[in-house]
Amino acid sequence: MSDSHKKSEQKQSDQPSPALNYLLLSAGSIFTSMLIAGFLVGYVLDQLFETTPIFLLSCAVLGFIGGLQKVHKLTSRLDPPPKEEKKDHENA
Questions:
Q1: CA quadruple 5, 9, 14, 16: dihedral positive or negative?
Q2: Which of these, 79, 59, 68, lies nearest to 16 by C-alpha position?
Q3: Angle CA 34–36–38, to nearest 5
Q4: What is the CB neighbour count within 10 angstroms for residue 67?
Q5: How far apart are alpha carbons 50 and 6 in whole angstroms?
Q6: DSSP string spanning 29-47?
Q7: Is 38 exposed, middle or buried, given 0-12, 13-18 or 19+ CB atoms closer than 10 A?
Q8: Confidence tier at 3 by pLDDT (50, 70, 90)
Q9: Terminal Cα distance for the chain, rounded
Q10: CA-based nearest residue to 78, from 10, 9, 19
Q11: pTM of the entire structure?
């Protein structure tokens, strides 16, 4: 095999699958749904306990953090795993 053919095969293997690209389309909706769910849970708890918006704000912050974690986990799938470098030229 020629060097250019090996390089093109290596570039193709480094690219993520198209299915992962479609998963990224849902990243915005995942983040938004987590935030809205936090607001709704906080609102219900505030109505249940008849409190000021303490639960609304705290659950919204938790929803924001949870949304960031989910989006980070989703986008980390696109990062290729680290490859160990082979020592071809030890004396060079």
A1: positive
A2: 79
A3: 70
A4: 21
A5: 67
A6: HHHHHHHHHHHHHHHHHHH
A7: buried
A8: low
A9: 24
A10: 19
A11: 0.68
**78, 16 Cβ separation under 8 angstroms:** yes
For the chain, the structural domain boundaries read: 39-78
Tokens coding 17: 């699958």
* Structure-token pair, residue 13: 């293997």
Q: How confident is the model at residue 75 (pLDDT cuts 50, 70, 90)?
A: confident
- For residue range 12-54, list pLDDT tens digits in order: 556 667 777 777 888 989 999 999 999 999 999 999 999 999 9
Look-up: residue for tokens 């849902």? 26
- Contact between 53 and 42 (Cβ < 8 Å): yes
Q: Is 6 exposed, middle or buried (0-12, 13-18, 19+ CB in 10 A)?
A: exposed
CA distance 59 to 65: 10
